[in-house]
Amino acid sequence: MKILILIIKVLRKFLKSIGKKEKKAISIINYLSWKERSDNFDLNFDFEEIKKDKDYFKKKNLWPSKIAACIAFSYKEERLIHIKEICKNLEMIDKNIDLTIVVNDLGFSKKDFIEKEINSICSLKIEFFNPKDLLDPRLLPLSHFEIVKKKFNQKEYSHFLYLEDDILIKELNIKYWVIARASLKKYNLIPSFVRTEINEKDKERYVVDTIKKNSFLLQSKILNKNKSFAFLNLVNFYCGSYFYDRELMSEHLNGPSCSLDFGHGSYNQKYIIPDMQELGLLERASAVLAFKDVPKGFLHRNMVPVNVITKQLEEYCLIEHLSNKFANTKSDFGKIKVKDVFK
Predict the structure, then answer these.
(1) Which of 161-165, 233-237, 278-282 has the highest mean pLDDT?
(2) With b meaning 16 or more CB within 10 Å and e meaning fewer, what string describes 125-139?
(3) Which of 317, 335, 340 lies closest to 325 in space, CA to CA?
(4) Residues 99-131: pLDDT tens digits?
(5) pTM reported for the whole predicted model
(6) Pair 147, 73: CB distance under 8 Å
(7) Which run of H or E residues covers position 39?
(8) Model pLDDT for residues 255-280, shown as the tens digit of each residue
(9) Phi and psi at residue 125, in whole multiples of 5°?
(10) Does the N-terminal or the C-terminal CB of the chain have fewer CB atoms within 10 Å?
(11) Distance of alpha carbon 105 from alpha carbon 128, whole angstroms
């Protein structure tokens, strides 16, 4: 019996090793599929526009007419400092933002206190939504789609923003997104963000969700004609947030990605997606269209901007993970500097 157990343990390690090699093989196959595309080098994106002021964006009809924003907040008093900072920056983005904070029962009982704290630094009007009878508290983030569906039916909302309770997004991020959206739309790709943290010891900025350096060569990308700039797939799509226009939100709400079973064969054999199957409920709340109808040669639809010459992520796609909990603790996450994402 002991020999049999030993054999099984060795076999298990062997199969696990094969699994790792299989992922590398998939990466190479994906790269070769990307190479077959005929539109990889015709990106039209003027990043200089991002430097323009908000009035420029409004005159060009690029700025959102009204944003419906949702923050998922499982109440902890010590995290209120993050909520306040987030709201302060949302007001700087646009005073007309419609903000709903999705809270658990404890948070709803303290909504007056939460609102008072937020109003001490900004004047955004806040609504609170407390989903009832959740089977599991982890379903709280996903319940924000109840609000999104209601807001979507009101034509005044042009864009939809979702944030976890420690994600800070700024005006620069929105400027980048609306310009990038126009450039990536024809490829069926979506501009995305990268979560970052500050390490307290060296004061440098680290990416949260990249645990291994990405191969710049093998990552699927769309480049401009002189190959100096690209939008690129990071291996990990996750950033704890999304910003969508009405067209993208309609695609999500009226399609398979809106199902909790999206990516699993029990939902539809057509949509068996291993990457979706590995996601937890928190990740699914912001995954939205990342793995729906992924274009040939790409890992997912979420793209981030990169300077090809320096092989550096562009500043305007970076968002702050205010808790800084990964870069300053023992964790697999938050250990790669922003400047070192690519090899």
Answers:
(1) 161-165
(2) ebebbbbeeeeeeee
(3) 335
(4) 999 999 999 999 999 999 999 999 999 999 999
(5) 0.91
(6) no
(7) none
(8) 999 988 887 766 666 777 777 777 77
(9) -75, 130
(10) N
(11) 11
Sheet holding 159-164, edge to edge: 126-129, 98-103, 67-73, 159-164, 241-245
**pLDDT band at residue 27 using 50, 70 and 90 as cut-offs:** confident
Nearest to 259 by CA among 279, 284, 239: 284
Specify the 3-state DSSP secondary structure of 334. coil
* Burial group, residue 337, by CB count within 10 angstroms (0-12, 13-18, 19+): middle
Task: Give, rounded to a whole angstrom, the gap between the first and last alpha carbons of the chain.
Answer: 46
> CA geometry: angle at 315 spanning 311 and 321, to 5°?
115
pLDDT of residue 259: 87
Q: 103 CB contacts (<8 Å, ≥6 apart)?
A: 73, 74, 75, 111, 114, 128, 129, 130
C-alpha–C-alpha distance, residues 246 and 185, integer Å: 13
Q: Is-contact 270 263, C-beta < 8 A?
A: no
Identify the three-state secondary structure at position 321: strand
Cβ neighbours of 91 (radius 10 Å): 17
- How would DSSP label each residue in 206-275? EESS--S-B-TTTS-EEEBTTSSEEEE--S----SEEEEEHHHHHHHHTSGGGSTTTBSTTT-GGGB-HH
Residues pairing with 195 in the sheet = 319
Token pair for 124: 């955004």
Helix, strand, coil shares of the chain as percentages rounded to 5?
40, 20, 40
Helix crossing, 246-253 with 144-152: angle to 10°? Answer: 120
* Mode of pairing for the β-strands spanning 318-321 and 194-198: parallel
Neighbours of 105 (CB within 10 A): 13
Q: Would you state the pLDDT for residue 32? A: 85
Comparing C-alpha atoms, which of 141, 160, 184 is closest to residue 253? 160
| CA 123 and chain centroid, separation | 27
The CA angle 178-74-317, to the nearest 5 degrees, is: 25
